[in-house]
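Cross-posting from the modeling subforum.

Setting up a comparison between two proteins and wanted a second pair of eyes on the formatting. Protein 1 (sequence, then structure tokens):
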Amino acid sequence: MKGCMGPMTINSNCSLSSVEYKAALQQCAVRRISSSSEVLALLIAALLFGALKPAQAQLKAGAAKVSITPDVTAMSVPLGGYAARRGAPATGVHDPVYARALMLQNGTVKVAVVSLDLCFLPTNVKDEVMKRVVAGGVNGMDSAHLFLSATHTHSAPDPLAMHSGNTFLNLKGWTPFNPKLLDFTSGKIAEAVIAADKNLTPAKIGSAVKNAVGLNRNRRGDPTVDPALTVVEVQKSDGSALATIVNFAAHPTLYDDKMLQISADWPGVMAADVETATSGAPCLFLNGAEGDASPNGVDDAKGDAKVTVYGHKISAVVNALLSTVKMDSPDAANLATWTTEVSLPPRKANAMFYLAAGQLGATIAQAKEFVTGLMPATTQFTFVRIGGLLLIGFPCEPSGDIGMAAKAAARKAGFTTPCVVALTNGWLAYCLTPMQYKAGKYEAVMSFYGDGFGPALLTALDTGLAQGGKQ
């Protein structure tokens, strides 16, 4: 062949693509090979050598949006997020809450990323969803391929009513376990995942990051807050919008405990804006290191206006950022998902927690039972890698310092665009640094593994990142 042969690939049906055919002819022209037999030999060799290189799998994606809003006239539905509501049922629906699902598949790897308008997500909800997803005929998935994340709205159905470990029946003002609400919610979430799987189509993906300075603040008064707003855009092969992911850190608490109607809070406004701008493509909000991050810039507004104004401010940043996204090449869309098991420190409630529990009428014994009944001894990190982008699923609410440390570790491990995602596939309340835990304040009261919780998770994170390098 006289050296007239470079590295070439073939398309998925093992025939030379038109681009590769032209490249082969150009090589021949450069080397002044004019013999038809030499040209034929070149093309055959390129085909054979290319066949030895695995073809790049085609990224596919599908999305769906399903309401998880229960009928508050058919069952009592307390709202989660504020103990001050004392288990009062929702009086109506201000705006619907949703499960928004994005199914991604590349070759044999498949993962479902799901944004849920809930305050948090008990692990048993994921288990129930997975059962229904399998029963619904979705193939190629197990629980490690399910990435469920709560937006953390404080005005959605109370997840404590879906927590199978919630066995407290005699506390006045406490939300009891309601198997009907668990069945309804997990069924609707599974419906979104199944529909997204059925909608799989060839797709392309890209991301962009912007610091949304001034739109969040540290509510503890600590210096750290993560201002990064990341968008992930998924398009069909024709360039039309398929889905958007938005990752940003801020509590959806613009409605206070006086709000007694179901609402997605500001993420609902933001997602609706983005969906309008993208012809209805579902917009998945994945909250970031929001443990001590609050919305900023709308203190002068009141009630509904505050929620609407802030939602519009975030969507304006998102929509502007979407116009800058460049789609990754097929080689950059490699997909992987994995989990890392974490052994947690001994469960240890903060002393102030017992005082707070007493204000709800609980004895110290009942408060201790709460901790052991609702807080597990082990947990998982869940990771989704899409090229250089990495979703890091924390099963808790990490503070800004924990989140920034996690991002730094991910970059050191070679991931160019890390996204911390709070409240993924579990609920362990707040995760703080030792200094933050010892300093007290509300987040420490609702942290149940002592001052070693943050370091333990960051150590496990390093293990998970090392695993990711082998995927």
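Protein 2 (same layout):
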Amino acid sequence: MMMLKSAQGDRTQHYENLNAYTRNGFPARWMLGKYWQIDEAIWDEFHEMLPPEYCDHGFRMIEKLTGDIAAAYLRIDGDYWCAMTDYDTTPADKMVRAIRNRNVGTRRWLPRAVS
């Protein structure tokens, strides 16, 4: 699991994170397990974009990168996150646990930029 640069208050950064694999020349599977913090406005925008596929703590986009790889929008302990998931190796519930475990004992999220 790897945290990408926070997109709180920065819609452009959210799109940069969503498309990091193409910008870096990697296959879509490279995105699995990547996640970043977003804000409620981004959550709402994507919830209204396409009919959601509901999952643990939020929803997944029905539009997939490839196969069953899709962005999941998660609300965890009052904060909003986007995580790249699939059904086998990185389902939404696994990402929820990873995000919580990474931030145990703190409510202050410390984003690390990853290219």
